[in-house]
Amino acid sequence: MLIESTGGRDFAVSISFRGFLLRSGALLVASVSAVLVTSCSLGSGAPETTPAPSPPPSGVEVPNPKDASAVDVCELLPAQAAQGLGLSPEGKKSENSLNEDLAGNCMWHTPDGAIAVGLASHGDRTLQSYYDNSADFVDFEKLDIAGYPAVRANTSDPKSDGGCAIFLASKSDQVVQSMSIVPTADINSVDPCDLSKRALEASVASWPAAN
Question: Which one is the CATH code of 13-27+63-206: 3.30.1330, 3.40.50, 3.40.1000, 2.60.120?
C-alpha cells in the first residue's frame, strides 16, 4: 500500500467532500450569471449590426480532449489505478444533496476509511474561469498534469485542513475535479495535493476521447 495512515478515526469524508465542493468547486455563481445575462438592447429603428464572432469557450488550449461525462463518474478512476494509490478498487457514488446543480461525485477510500479521494466532472465550466478568479483562492497554482492544463484552487490551506482540490481541463468547456481529504494528523506523511494530482495522472488516459 502506498498510503499509510492511522485508523480508528470518525472521519465524515463524504460530508466533508460535498462541503468542499461548495466552497471551492462552485466559482462565483452570481458573477458568472451576471456575465451571461448582460446584454445590449438596440432601440426601435436602430440599424442592424453584425455581431462579433463569439470567443472560444476557453482561453486554455486542451490537447487531445477527453469527455469525462461519457462514462459513469465511478469509472473515472480505474480499479487498478485506485489500488496503486492505496485506495479500495471500487468507488462509491455520492450525490450532492446540498446543491442539485453540482455534479455527483465518486469517492474512493483507504481500507481503513481514514483517507478519501473523490472525482467529479463539471460540464459547461472552463479552466479560464479559475484563472480569472485566482485572487479568491488562498491556495492557487497552475499545473500541467499528464499534458493537460490544470489548476490547484483552494479557499483554505491544504496543509492546515487536509483537503486539496485540483481541477483539470479535460476539454475546453469541461473540468474534472480531484479532491483528496486527509486527516490533519496524517498531513505530514500524506500530502493531499499530491494525492489529488496522482489520481488525475492515473486516470485521464482512460477517459473517452471527446467527439
Answer: 3.40.1000
Residue entry with cell 486527516:
183
- What are 141's strand-pairing partners? 152
* 53-111: pLDDT as tens digits: 444 455 789 999 999 999 999 999 999 999 999 999 999 998 665 554 445 899 999 99
pLDDT, position 81: 97
**Rounded distance, CA 189 to CA 91, Å?**
23
How many residues make up the chain in this entry?
A: 211
- pTM score, two decimals? 0.73
Distance of CA 100 to the CA centre of its chain: 16
Yes or no: say if 181 and 115 are a contact pair by the CB < 8 Å rule. yes
